[in-house]
Structure formats: C-alpha cells, structure tokens
Specification:
By secondary structure, the protein is mainly α. It has one domain. It is 59% helix and 5% strand. The chain contains seven helices and four strands. The strands form two sheets. The protein has a two-stranded antiparallel sheet with strand order 1-2. It is globular. 24% of the residues are buried.
C-alpha cells in the first residue's frame, strides 16, 4: 500500500468488543497543507468514481453512478459532492480558468446524467471527478512537488 492512500486504523479495543465485528476506520487527513488536501481529494474521487466493483466484471463504480440512478435528484447530489473537489482546488490556488473548466465537467456530467437510461450509461463511461483529480494532481506536482506520490 502506498503512502498516497488513506491508512486503515482498527477501532479501539473497547469498541471492538462491544460491536462484535472487526470494522476498519480510516484516518482522514486534516489541515490546509497540500498533502492533506491531496489525500482528501483522492478519497472523495475514489468514493464517487470507483468505490465498488460490479460483481462478475472488472468494472468499478462509485456513488456518482449509483445515486445517479435516481432521476434528477441523484445527479444533483452527485454534482454537489463533486463540487467539493473544485472547492478544495480553489483553496489550493488553481487558476480561475481551471476552476471553470472543472465546474464545466461537473455541469456536463450532471446535464447528460439527468437523461433517463442514456444518462446512467453515460455516468459509467464519463468520470468528471477523475478528470478533475488529474487536473489537481498536475497543479500539485508542478507547484508542490513534495506532495508527489508514486502511482501503481
């Protein structure tokens, strides 16, 4: 496991004994330093785009595709969650034209995703949050090289 992923932490002993299950918790990095922001953005992108595998296939889906099945409202909720990535990018100091580009991707994803059936298939193929993450990573690699991680 590389350092760019969230580190699983087992629950405290007293909670483990009372719950009866061995659930894993994740340590969410706090703070405004670029590395913490990068990890939060990567976690949100993972949740929205590839948090679950479709059984019997090698395809991964996330909350964006799952809640997008609910007509209109699901796509609006997914857009709001994707806007969090853009908000974090603004805090990192990305240029305004990049922020508009990122919001355009989310708007396009939301507009086409709201179309019944066609939009659901489109959500599986077009991953606006992954594209936005790549934009942020390029910015961080250029302006904050200490946050660079090795991709597997």
């Amino acid at each position: 496991m590389t350092q760019d992923r969230l580190t699983p932490m087992p629950p405290p002993q007293d909670e483990r004994a009372s719950a009866g299950t061995d659930r894993m918790r994740f340590e969410m990095p706090l703070g405004r330093e670029p590395l913490a922001v990068r990890r939060r953005i990567e976690a949100m992108e993972h949740l929205l785009e590839r948090s679950a595998a479709i059984p019997g296939t090698n395809m991964r889906v996330g909350l964006d595709q799952i809640i997008g099945l609910v007509p209109v409202v699901g796509d609006l909720v997914a857009a709001a969650m994707g806007s969090y990535i853009v908000w974090e990018a603004r805090n990192l100091g990305l240029p305004k034209w990049r922020l508009w580009q990122m919001m355009g991707r989310i708007g396009f994803d939301t507009a086409v995703g709201a179309i019944p059936l066609v939009g659901d298939a489109f959500d599986v193929v077009y991953r606006s949050n992954t594209k936005n993450l790549k934009t942020i990573k390029r910015h961080l690699d250029k302006h904050h090289p200490e946050t660079r991680t090795i991709e597997q």
